[in-house]
Amino acid sequence: MSYAVANMKKFKLTQVNGLGHHDERKTDHHRNQEIDVTKSSENYTVVPEKYRKPDNVSLQKFIQQRISESRDSSRAVRKDAVALTEWVVGSDHQFFESLTNAQTKSFFEDAYAWFANRYGAENIPYATVHMDETTPHMHMGVIPLINGRLSAKSLFNREELRSVQAEFPEYLKSRFWKIERGQKGSQHRHLSVEEYKKIAPELQNKREQLKKDLQGYQLIDVSKLEPETIPQQVKTGLFKTETQYVQTENYILTPKDYERLSQRVRGVSDVRVAQESIWEIKQRLDAKEAHLEEREK
Length: 297
Description:
Blueprint: E1 2-3, E2 5-12, H1 16-23, E3 44-45, H2 59-70, E4 82-90, H3 93-97, H4 101-119, E5 126-130, E6 137-142, E7 145-146, E8 149-150, H5 152-155, H6 158-174, E9 179-180, H7 193-215, E10 226-235, E11 241-252, H8 255-296
Parallel strand pairs: 1-9
Antiparallel strand pairs: 2-4, 3-5, 4-6, 5-6, 7-8, 10-11
Helix pairs in contact: 7-8
């Protein structure tokens, strides 16, 4: 089963234009080597035109206007205030491999609808789906407005973030997507770009090796097993029969062979779980890399 990915980062007003340039692929030069610029034309938005940021308006200006319209206070926004939270939404590579492009778009439309209903479609200026990387994912901006105030701390407190991780996957499941929530109470921490780049190749190599191991994994050598035979009455004369033993298509396992087989089956299961875990971690790291790069510019 695949897991839902919904990770959030906070950005000040002075940072959002650079973020927008990355998300909208306004440059052909990217530090993320997994971006295939020849496929960037396949990226798309799922925000209805009514709520979408116009192309001729900068993201910073659009957010400023929305904040001015919604805040009760006439005071200027603090320079260090969080003006935008960006969510990276998606799942693992295996999940999207089983979907057509149309189904993938429907998945992200459903994901956007959940956030729009919860935080207001008017507060989501963009939700861009990237199809030009290894795994499809969506970058979605949410302006943290709550009760006439700009406050990411109040809107996305610890309780609310836990609710997102619990309720968002359940909503996707209700829409018939084969998805689960991530591990509850996970102690995984976010990595820096340097840490990510150190372990990403190793994770990929391990995944490929596990895949090869699974493909060539022989549970047991059938040629060395004793075939099962069953008694069968065979007619040998007009009024005469005798018992003969006939071989079936089954094989007999000794207690020792059975235990060995059981251990190997459990081993294959553990390998599959490890493979899925490695890929989930890599997908989460991939989704965060763009945000980490922006923070270090």
